Amino acid sequence: MVKRTWVVLGVLGLVACRKGPAENQALIAQPAVVDSVVPIQAALRRFREGSPEVQRLSSGAPTRAALVSQLINALGASDTLAVEHLTVTRAEYAWLYYPTTAIARPPYELPPALAWFQVQEGNRKGALRLLRALGGRALDYQGVTCAAEPVTEGDNRIWTGCLVKLGVDGGTPSPQRLFAAILERHGRSAFLSFDNDL
User: Fold this and answer.
1) Burial code of 51-78, b = ≥16 C-beta within 10 A, e = fewer?
2) Which of 42, 73, 115, 145 has the highest local Cβ count within 10 Å?
3) Angstrom distances, CA of residue 47 to CA of 26, 94, 115
């Protein structure tokens, strides 16, 4: 049997600001091999190698409101590391999120390393857009609303459809989509996707 193999780059840093080389050093490329004929459970065991087992979210914040408030503060300060600490880590993705997500099951069965790479790439691009558009500016945060009900996957609750009421540099606050998904688990929340409209 001929095996199809993809070689992808996993990005360790979720975000970086393109203002200077020192800020971009947080992004370190790490090669990962994804074999399309390896069963998902075997692929997950491989993906988990080198990532300590975690039982709960340590990234993020205690509540969704606090999470978004901390994001706004980090953007106002152009603090890329603070933004990174608000996002789901590789270990959290491997041990808490991926095992119950729909993409791990038929008809998708997306290998975890490839799924994580796609999340990382999307988050990197989304966070860069946030930092370019809002970094260092005067931000007037007036709250966040999300969909009435989350998507439930095992112990995970995925909040989507979130709009942040935000004023920029003294402008009239308006609803803005700054991110696409928040992962909530056992009373703690972290950003899962930074896809946005900026």
Assistant:
1) eeeeeebebbbeebeebbbbbbebbbeb
2) 115
3) 22, 7, 11
